[in-house]
Amino acid sequence: MTTEIWIIDDERSIRDSLSQTLDIEGFMPKTFASAKEALSQLDSAFEGVIISDINMPQMDGIAFLNHALAVDKEFSIVMLTGHGDISTAVSAMRGGAYDFLEKPFSTDHLLDVIRRGLDKRNLVIENRELRRELEQQSAPGPRILGNCAEIKQLRRTLSYLKDKESPLLMQGERGTGKELAARFMHDHSERQDEPFISLKCRLVPDSGIEQELFGNPTDTNTFSSKHGKIFSARKGTLFLDGIEALPQATQRKLSIALRNTVDMPRVIASTRVDLQQSARLQKFDQSLYEILSSITLHFPPLREREEDTYLICQNFLRTTASRFGIAPPNLNADHKAKMAQYTWPGNVTELRNFAERWVLMGEEQALSESVTSEENDHTSLAERLTKVERSILFDALNRHNGRLKEVQQELGLARKTLYEKLKKHHLDKESFKA
């Protein structure tokens, strides 16, 4: 166990005795000689149990209880009382204390009360996180989908870090959702009304990346040009995708800016490589790595989130179909099994593209390109184009129930051309009629 248990008592012998007992049992005891001292360090993020004596000078246990419950009315606070103070302890419980311990008490009773108090506090915190997560996932804007343990923890961490000022690093394979997560943090933060600017470092030539970031520096301030991304995003968020692609001279300049310049945006960087190894091999600036890596988030590949693939695919199918005003395809057990067998090297990005192909080009084309095989397609360009053309025709005929005039209008084909293509691909309009 690593949860803190606070002990508040003006008698040192009581503090030491309880602290030793809890330490032996694997807890993390923290002692306070006065209620005021404990109150000055207490906030609503506290996850443990507080044990407080009732009779103390300056601020007694009842006053502490009232002040503490004003910070968080669901703290687990246990009152210590002597035989003559039972009525006071009962009143304290009516006022919001979790329980009380009458001196003298056995170690077993003490541990039982603490464990129950911890269970209650953990449940409170878990429910709050679930409510907060539900609110964020129901709000407009990007959502982080998934039910696996890693993604649940990632969502909690993103929510906790969203309003922090410090830079952070997102590490994961291509397509694992790093930019989506950065947008999620921005959209749910105090910066949501300020700019979110994304710069794909791999796509900007080395000769132009410094000007892209910093603009044309003035003589008075190297980083204040109004034409650079840093200035444009200064009160918002700057997302640097593929930061390992920055030239080392630019890395050093960015490191100086992050350390010394005021009015910097919140910088979130992403990478597909092991930056620690790159810094060790002097392929990445050590100073910049130290700044960014103080907070590092790891994004698991989709192949390690097998239970989430089906959920995410369903979401992509629904949103794509809604965008184009058509009914979403239905997934069955066979589809689910095929998706589970595939390793999705392009991760969530590949899954989204797969879902969009399914909606727009039909199941046959989507499955043939993504899920039925991971082997390289050695067919010729002409053969691939033929497959795509047949899939488009098949999907249009299916959506229009075989009505050729509507298919002709949608695809922009002359009547003769449409008939020729139907004959070429062995498609009969009658088989599509409802």
From TrEMBL:
Residues 4-118 form the Response regulatory domain. This is Sigma-54 dependent transcriptional regulator. Keywords: ATP-binding, Nucleotide-binding, Phosphoprotein, Transcription, Transcription regulation. SUPFAM superfamilies: CheY-like, Homeodomain-like, P-loop containing nucleoside triphosphate hydrolases. CDD domains: AAA, REC_DctD-like. It comes from Enterovibrio qingdaonensis. The keyword Nucleotide-binding applies. The modification 4-aspartylphosphate is found at residue 53. PANTHER family: C4-DICARBOXYLATE TRANSPORT TRANSCRIPTIONAL REGULATORY PROTEIN DCTD, TRANSCRIPTIONAL REGULATORY PROTEIN. It holds the Pfam family Response_reg. It comes from the Bacteria.
